[in-house]
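Re: beginner question about structure tokens

> Can someone show what the tokenized structure looks like for a real chain? I only ever see the sequence side.

Sure, here's an example I had lying around. Input first:
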Amino acid sequence: MYQIGKRAVFLTILLSAVVASCSGTREYLMVGSSHAPGSDGMIVLDEIDEGSTLVTVHMERLPPPSHLGDDIDSYLVWFQEYNKKPIKAGVLTYHSETRTGDITRNCPFNEFKMMITAERDQNVKTPSHLVIAERTVKPE
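And the corresponding structure tokens:
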């Protein structure tokens, strides 16, 4: 009986891995910078169609934006294709009671750097130097 249980667990894990590899979903860890030590999170990429990716970001243990400087009130997410200017994806919704942040956006790139910055104004055109976390994502 014990042998059958081990085999069932192994087959379940194997099947899960096969399904995940066929789904087009990729996951990446995010680690906070020196501006947000202890922060971490996850990026989940789901291929929508050729050349379009749904990016979901969840960060944990984020400091309140106001703790990072005078007039800092939000976190913004940026996508940057190699050797190109960053484009603003949107505002990372900050949940003060849990110190978490979330955003889901479409991205036109398959390989890019994603940055989270602390900003004084949500309408800025370029990212500030207050990078909270960044990660380069590539096809595997």
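Each token stands for a local structural state, so reading them left to right follows the chain. The CA atoms of residues 94 and 101 lie 4 Å apart.
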